[in-house]
Amino acid sequence: MSTHTIATPRRRSTRGRGPGGIVAAAFLILALAWTVVPLVWMLLGSFKGPGDVTASTPQWFFEPTWRNYENLFSGANNLATYLNHSVIAAVGAAVIATVLGTLGGYGLARTAFKGKKGLSFWFISTRMAPIAAVVLPLFLVFRFAGLIDTLPGLILAYLTFNLPFAIWIMSAFFEAIPPSLEESAEVAGCTRWQTFWYVALPLTKAGIVTTAVLCLVFAWNDYAFATVISGPNSQTLPIAATQLVTQTGVDWGQLTAIGTIVVLPMTLVGLAVRKWLVTGLTLGAVTGE
Amino acid sequence: MSADQTADQNTAARSRDAGDAGIGPTPVAPSARQHDRGRTGGITFTGWMMSPGVALLGLLSLIPLVMLIMMSFSRVRLLGGLQLEFVGLDNWIRAFSDVELWKSWVLTIGFFVSTLGVELVLGIAIAVVLNRLTRGRGLLLPLILLPMFVAPSIVGLLGRYMLDPTFGLYANLLQGLGFEQDVLGNPVSAFVAVTLMDVWEWTPLIALITLAGLSGVNPSVLEAASIDGADEWKKFWNIVLPSIKPILLVAILIRSMDAVRYFDIISVTTNGGPADATKIIPVRLYEAAFRFFDLGYAAVIGIMMLALTIMIARLFVGLLSEKETH
Predict the structure, then answer these.
(1) Does B237 touch chain A (CB under 8 A)?
(2) Between chains, do B214 and A6 touch, taking CB under 8 Å as contact?
């Protein structure tokens, strides 16, 4: 709503259009092309036959084929296995993080004790810790615990960034609802758990969904952890994709097909929560429209 | 009384309203309820709520941290069972006297400055233009946001496909413009290429954050400036930019923490080369740890990275609580 109030006077002042408007339009078209062309090119590539995908003059028009997808999901090295691993690891990490993050975030938002600032700081620095610095000791710990090349190991690794993220961001979402509602529920005789379950939780539905989606995207897109911790029994899609490259001769048709399979679901779920995206991705520091 | 002071006051007043753009509520808010009834055996209700998450995170963050510190003072052997052999400050001395490592740090800073610089300029420009649109914004914004959801490893692979010297779409375009070399094979163009891949992925985030900031700019101040004869550029520089400054600071801090994490794109494109032109710190750590199995030395690099992250996180939390008290 606040955007409309800005748009009105601005529109009036640029009514005349003139060179500024043309420059702006040209810039926007360029920015859009820069953003979309690689993705469109990947999507097109995944439907190209072997001759078209690596033709020395790029082909915009060609005979589309499902071949690449069919090849990926047949034969000995079936992509379905890796797809399964990706789904289990990402969904597992997202669900655990969201559940524990919702509980913990509520606790953090509705408490006031001396160590709170330190605790918050611990969450944010754990979330932001460089994966390279985490995966290094985790590799040794997991070797010791027998968690290398297992899906539970991968889920635990993803929780190192998803769990602090979920606690922190859910706490920001709970902070945004006025405590007076919960106070009156308690006056009416609700226990604290009932207040949480029947009053606070429904009010943060959008926040919970956003948290879950972002956790899912972070885990699904991971490469840095999986490249160290996963193996034949737990390989995820991004690793499968990069392994196609290191073998002699890259099948770019299959590679663009894997790319499409990795990218498509995340763009769909990501765009579904785009209203709260800015809050989620700035860790609650910025609230959107 | 200048126009931008008015704008500042206005945004400050507006950001107090819930739901408006601005620095929002944070977990460090002083507004938390003081009463915490429902005690069960010394632990409060909120304590119980936090305990599962905190316990799990404690395991997942403290064990590796202790391990990392121990590793940095040890020679780590993996063959025939895990062994940590105490070697004192050896790894630390080696790291601090390694010129190559310092070159990597300089490269990391260069990479960070160039990605963030381009992302800020482009992101703000896209946001300003989108904000002027009266129609079609709902359609354009999702398209602009797409790259953020693409796995960075796929961004890198796609970059390779686009830049392949024999069939790449962009390589073809560049050859048409007279650039005939293999883009990822030349140190300078490889650095530019991986920078632009990061720019491609994360400019949308800056645009999105800026857009949230722009909706907090007071339109009446802009109108008053127009009446006073200020042109578009002056209005942007003197009114819009100062009022979105706090939000941009958030964006910069978020991206700077991410910059230390940056690894995937370079790993699948250049893997640090050619001639170390893209060997930023995380890439060097992976190389030391998982190619040369010099795990103690890699642990020192890890601790350096961690220290930097903690410093930036401090700034971030400080910024948030400063906004709270205003």
Answers:
(1) no
(2) yes
Choose the closest CB to B24 out of A112, A156, A172.
A172
Please state the pTM of the whole predicted model.
0.87
* Residue of chain B nearest A52, judged by CA positions: B167
Q: Please identify among residues 169-208 of chain B the ones whose CB lies closer than 8 Å to any CB of chain A.
A: 169, 172, 200, 204-205, 208
Question: What dotted CATH number matches A78-281?
Answer: 1.10.3720.10
Which chain A residues are within 8 Å of B174, Cβ to Cβ? Answer: none
The mean-pLDDT minimum among A274-283, B52-61, B89-98 falls in A274-283
Which among B52, B153, B172 is the nearest to A242, CB-wise? B153
The yes/no answer to whether this complex scores an ipTM above 0.85 is yes
Read off the pLDDT of each residue in B234-246 and give the average, rounded to a whole number: 88
Confidence bin at B228 (pLDDT 50/70/90): confident
B143 touches chain A (CB under 8 A): yes
Residue A287: what are its φ and ψ, rounded to 5°? -105, 140
Residues with Cβ within 8 Å of B12's Cβ and at least 6 positions away in sequence, in order, are: B326
- Could you tell me which CATH number the domain at B91-325 has? 1.10.3720.10
> What pLDDT is attached to residue A151?
96
Helix or strand run (H / E) with residue B300:
helix B295-325
Contact in structure between A132 and B302 (CB atoms under 8 Å):
yes
Whether residue B23 lies within 8 A of chain A, CB to CB, comes out as yes
Q: Which residue of A has its CA nearest to B312?
A: A125
Residue B94 CA to residue B282 CA, distance in Å, equals 18
Q: Which of B298, B303, B306, B301 is nearest to B75 (CA)?
A: B298
What is the reported pLDDT for B133? 84
Beta carbons within 8 Å of A133's beta carbon, 6+ residues apart: B68, B285, B301, B302, B303, B305, B306
Cβ–Cβ < 8 Å for B244, B214: yes
Q: Which two tokens stand for residue A102?
A: 């919702």
Q: From CA A212, how far away is CA A220, in angstroms rounded?
A: 12
> Smallest Cα–Cα separation from A212: which of A139, A282, A163?
A163
Contact B263 A132 (CB under 8 A): yes
Q: Is B85 part of the contact surface with chain A (CB cutoff 8 Å)?
A: no
The better pLDDT of the pair A113, B304 is held by B304
Check CB contact under 8 Å for A277 and B54. no
**Domain range summary for chain A, segments of one domain joined by +:** 2-71, 78-281
